[in-house]
Structures are given as structure tokens and as C-alpha cells.
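Handout, page 2. Input:
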Amino acid sequence: MRIAIDAMGGDHAPGACVEGALAAAAEYPDTVIVLVGDTARLEPLLQGRRPANLELRHASEVIEADDEPVKAVRRKKDSSMVVAGRMVKEGEVGAMISAGNTGALMTTGLLVVGRMKGIERPALAPMLPTLDGEGVLALDLGANMDATAQQLVQYAIMGSIYRMKVHGMKKPRVGLLNVGTEAMKGNEVTKAAFPLLETAPVDFVGNVESRDVLQKPCDVLVCDGFAGNIMLKSMEGTASAVFSVLKAEFTRTWYTKLAAALVKNGLGRFRSKMDYTEHGAAPLLGLEGLVLKSHGSSNATAFKNAVRQARTALSNDLVRSISVEISKGSEWESP
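Output:
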């Protein structure tokens, strides 16, 4: 099993990428980790720590965070992201991981790796934290701003298969993000998607309101990228604000500092439930190969966990499983 990491993508690249790759190589000796990037910058970071299952692949260019995605992918053909995507396309590696420019990674997936037959639009599917610590897989959370009812159904099928293959769920529950739980609530797209999801090969449990997501009303949450990304950023902002307020309050007086010491372990457990690094990366589902997007601020732990995710997906033949189910099509599609 071989997995490529875009070593030049992300806020803390290449340092966090290298440390994450070293940790993954140590934990999974049966997996070859390929760091793709400027070898002149990568080799000094290894400092002689070069296990047999860690390889370097030189790429002379970098796609920056503010680059226009399509232009960057087309013009920077020797960028670390594009080279890693080409390795997936050509079968040199089974999966690639990047914390770089999301739009560019989506473009790399479409133009370099290739879209899966039968899939109209691939979807970004990160895990949203829940109070029980297990999380909800949500898609799409930003790859596509708009979606049709049929595309939402495809998201539901891909998300269900991911939960079964990667997380071992026998019958993942699928919910549709909406402004109310009633069947006829929502805009034209969600109202059209509801009856299609009822006949789709998934365990559809109905509409879900964003205020209930942390309670885990479903295992897979389906939405368009516009609404989904707003929900995601709202959750991230709220969590950040809550922890900032708690820190300020618990350090205000010696009484509150004493209280903080008493609840420190509990707060630590709660924070870990909300920590994106535990989930590692979000897959771009609907491509011909396995591509995972790590958070832009990913640290070494996040990259190591992304490798774990990729290993599980490859071991369970995720891409082929989605392709087979999508190819069945027909009865759940609109006339």
C-alpha cells in the first residue's frame, strides 16, 4: 500500500507534513508514505530519520493558498499537489493527502485524477463533531456551491458507503439538512430531493435542522456546499468563541483558577471531541481515485490520522464500492 502526501500544502507545511509522515511510517510499517515536494526543503527536515517505508518525490512548484484553482493546476504541472494527483491517476499510489488550496485540490481531482463515471459532481465530506464523540459525515461542505436534487442523492449514497466501508457501520442513517423537519419544508431543491432520498438505497431518516447536528440525529448529513460550508464555519466559530470565553473566565480570579483545575480533565475531553485533528482529513468522494483534504491548519497528528483513514479506505475498496453502487442507478433517479 502506497500513500502520497502533498508536503508543500497547508499552513504548517512542510514541517507538519514531514513529522506526520514519519509518525505514520512508524505506526504503519506495511505502508509506504511518499512525501511529494521540494526535496531541497524536505531532506533537512528529516535529519537522518529516513525509514525504509518513507520516500521522497521531487516537485519543483507549489500551489499557494491564494492561487486561482484552475489556472494553478493547469500552469503548475510540476506542483506537489498536481504531481501527487498524477501518481494516483497512474496507479503509482493508492491515495493522496493534501492540506493545500481546497479549490485547487478539487480541480486536481477533476482534471488530473478524474471524475467517477455516473457522478455529476464529487463532494467534500468532512466529519462534523458531535457530543458523543463519534461525529457526523457531512457532504458537500464546500466543493460545490449549488446542487441538484439528483446530486444530493448521489451524496447520500457515497456518504453511506464511506460510513460502511471506513467506519464499519452496518446501516448508516442519512439526513437532509433543512430549515425544518417536515417533509415539505425547504427550498425547491430540498423539497425535490426528499422523495428521491426515500426511494434511494440508503436509510433516510428525513430532514435535519442544523441546531440538532451536535446531537447526532443521523450518521450522514446531506446538503449543498453553500449551506454546508456556512454551517461548518458557524460551528468552528462558535467552538472557538466558547473556548476563548471559558479561558478568560477561568483565569479571571484565583477562585476561577481553582475551579478550572477541578474541571480541567472534563474540559480536555470535551475539547478533544471538537478537535478536527482526530478525524484527519475529508475525502473528495466521487473521483476515480482516493483523494483526501486535510484541514489547512493540520498538524503532524492530523496528517498521521489522515494516513490511517486512507489505509482503511483502500483496504475496504472504497472507490470501487461507490462506483458499483452508483452504476446501478435508475429507480431512485427522477424521470
